[in-house]
């Protein structure tokens, strides 16, 4: 039997790929791209692809146990991964990995793009699941989850997406293997730009330029177990005062507020998308009692957890 400590460290439940569509697609989705209205016999386990046509106006915050690639070709959209908020514009890609808190909103009327969802073992015949974060660092906490591509690489990425869709729709012999290869080539195309832009070196850079992004990544990774600014200062090799001062200068908020914000995102995901009781959520988020969680949530959001769940 698991101990109380083990249970308290459990994550909020995550969505699996085959029980996720209702959260991101409109009920009357009429798109003919990708999986939107694809015959069940042509679907490939562990993989889905869509265009932004038929996408809900807002998604999340929520957690999932699969990888996600979001590609914007026109318009704009706000995407938040953990504590990192970015605005997509034409040529922007973002990447989400299993267990990450994710949200998308403020989608402009002229937005168009694609997104791909796949399980960790989907590319197993090409690359082991455990090697994906190492091979493609934008799928790792230490990497940069957003990239802006020039015309040539974003055109190549869009071409791979269309080839994947063509394989799905035509369902010719060997289509599943072809999709595996096209997805891998798409990721490789992005990695080449990622390396060319020097994004693969930021994780080891100790300058203040990268201190705040690295702090945010660490909070997204460790917030359930580490609640003190001093914990993150130790991980980053700086003093708590230096970390607090730098975070405040860059973001306008204290490091403690950033940690609290991550907890609020996690709580909102559980309240909106699960039936887990408030008491259970407070326990899983390592609060000493439900009253403390209620007080914390109200201070951060202006409403109680039950009121947020009712209005979500």
Describe the structure.
The structure is a single chain. The protein has 312 residues and is α+β, with helices and mostly antiparallel strands. It has 12 helices and 9 strands. It has helices spanning 4-8, 21-24, 132-135, 151-170, 175-196, 208-222, 229-236, 240-251, 255-273, 278-284, 290-301, 305-311, and strands spanning 47-51, 59-63, 67-74, 77-81, 84-88, 92-96, 101-105, 112-118, 146-148. A 5-stranded antiparallel sheet has the order 1-8-3-6-9, covered by helices on one side. A 4-stranded antiparallel sheet has the order 2-7-4-5. A hairpin with a 2-residue loop joins strand 4 and strand 5 (84-88). Helix 6 packs across helix 7 and helix 10 (278-284) crosses helix 11. The longest helix has 22 residues, at 175-196. The chain is globular and about 55 Å long. Residues 1-10 and 202-207 have low confidence and may be disordered. Keywords: DNA-binding, Transcription, Transcription regulation. Residues 213-311 form the HTH araC/xylS-type domain. One of its GO terms (molecular function) is DNA-binding transcription factor activity. It comes from Chitinophaga polysaccharea.
**Mean residue pLDDT:** 89
Number of helices: 12
Uncertain ranges: 1-10, 202-207
> Helical residue percent?
40-55%
In CATH, the homologous superfamily of the largest domain goes by the name Regulatory protein AraC
Major beta-sheet overview: 5 strands, antiparallel
Q: What portion of the residues fall into strands of 2 or more residues?
A: 15-25%
By secondary-structure content and strand pairing, the structural class works out as alpha+beta
CATH architecture of the largest domain: Sandwich
The domain tally reads 2
CATH topology of the largest domain: Jelly Rolls
* Order of SSEs: HHEEEEEEEEHEHHHHHHHHH
Shape: globular
């Amino acid at each position: 039997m698991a101990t109380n400590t083990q249970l308290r460290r459990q994550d909020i439940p995550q969505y699996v790929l085959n029980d996720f569509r209702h959260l991101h697609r409109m009920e009357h989705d009429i798109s003919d791209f990708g999986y939107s209205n694809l015959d069940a016999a042509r679907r490939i386990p562990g993989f889905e692809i869509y265009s932004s046509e038929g996408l809900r106006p807002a998604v999340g915050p929520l957690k999932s146990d699969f990888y996600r690639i979001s590609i914007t070709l026109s318009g704009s959209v706000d995407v938040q991964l953990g504590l990192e908020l970015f605005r997509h514009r034409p040529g922007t890609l973002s990447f989400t990995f299993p267990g990450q808190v994710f949200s998308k909103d403020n989608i402009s009327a002229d937005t168009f793009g694609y997104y791909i969802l796949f399980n960790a073992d989907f590319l197993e015949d090409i690359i082991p699941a455990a090697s994906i974060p190492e091979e493609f660092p934008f799928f790792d906490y230490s990497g940069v989850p957003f990239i802006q591509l020039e015309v040539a690489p974003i055109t190549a990425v869009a071409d791979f997406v269309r080839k994947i869709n063509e394989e799905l729709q035509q369902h010719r012999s060997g289509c599943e293997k072809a999709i595996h290869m096209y997805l891998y080539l798409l990721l490789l195309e992005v990695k080449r730009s990622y390396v060319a832009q020097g994004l693969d070196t930021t994780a080891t850079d100790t300058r203040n330029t990268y201190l705040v992004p690295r702090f945010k990544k660490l909070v997204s990774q460790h917030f359930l177990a580490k609640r003190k600014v001093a914990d993150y200062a130790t991980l980053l090799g700086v003093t708590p005062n230096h970390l607090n001062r730098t975070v405040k200068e860059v973001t306008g908020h204290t490091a403690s507020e950033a940690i609290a914000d991550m907890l609020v995102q996690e709580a909102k995901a559980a309240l909106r998308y699960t039936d887990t009781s408030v008491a259970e959520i407070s326990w899983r988020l390592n609060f000493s009692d439900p009253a403390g969680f209620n007080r914390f949530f109200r201070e951060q959001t202006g409403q109680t957890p039950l009121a947020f769940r009712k209005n979500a």
